[in-house]
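Annotated sample (chain length 361).
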Amino acid sequence: MTDLSALIAKHIRQDIQSMHAYAVQDSTGMLKLDAMENPHALSPDLQAELGKRLGALAINRYPGSRVDDLKAALREYAKVPEGYGLMLGNGSDELISLLAMVCDVPGGSILAPLPGFVMYAMSAQLQGLKFIGVDLTPDFELDLPSMQAAISLHRPSIVYLAYPNNPTANLWDDAAIEAIVELQGEQGGLVVMDEAYQPFSSKTYLDRMTRHHHVLLMRTLSKFGLAGVRIGYMMGPEKLIQEVDKARPPYNISILNAECALFALEHADVFAAQAQDIQAQRGVLLAALAQMAGVKAWKSDANMILVRVPDAQKTFDGLKAQGVLIKNVSKMHPMLANCLRLTVGTAAENSRMLAAFTPSL
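Output written by the structure step:
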């Protein structure tokens, strides 16, 4: 019989053995406010309509032209500039992995501000690329001199700028972004603007990206309201998108997922109203948190709020004991000491979380 430990030691990369898998918390029976999901479900009428459409699909066939229909619908919805291409991913995570794959050249590296989305560093490590993290300022703003110095020193293949950032939920200064984009272009690298939280943001980089031929813009339908459908998309100059798209697995988007996304885009007004409600509820939460002694909440342009409390683990455990699940990010980075990330829920969900919050401090 094969010794599994010996097999793993011989054939699995040592750095993989030392890694931790992406953790998903068990939310069974909990009020789930830990993953920046849209809390609104489809109405019964829309559920029935979608069910009929999915039931009529030829799931015995590989995905075909319906995926092309989705790309066309997304081009129109996102207002993709003329001469720009669009490609699909199984969530933004796949797009991030594909970018690491296609940019895996000798001396290649990936750079991003920290704290930030963990998949930037993880995709680099999995592909064997060097990852350079540049700390934000204490107020979670871009440290422009440090970013510029790191770009000049390391000449990274990709610079990621999440806009808004995760988990800090803030937008970056316009002038700082442009300085980074221009410097990265001068040294011949790519910039990827990650707009995962665009439905809740007061700004987008879309109207500025056409000034630069080395900028890609990435979005997802997860925060739009389709986290379970797994559709990410990326736009950029057609020639550049064509090169990245060569690494995409065939049929990476299922016919079921494509049809769900098309259905949602046909009812974009419903999801836009949900986003407006989430933005309003974000304001309610921020106002309530501002009244709590010992709690600091940062301004948010996403569907989450970063807060610092006296004891993050105590508050996390206290909320969980009351059936409210949030995200304890206090150990993700030293700058996040005693920080928690709260997803913005419905009015009823937020009221329940706030009622449980103070007793948990």
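Annotation: The first strand starts at residue 31 and ends at 32.
Annotation: Residues 8 and 338 are 36 Å apart (CA to CA).
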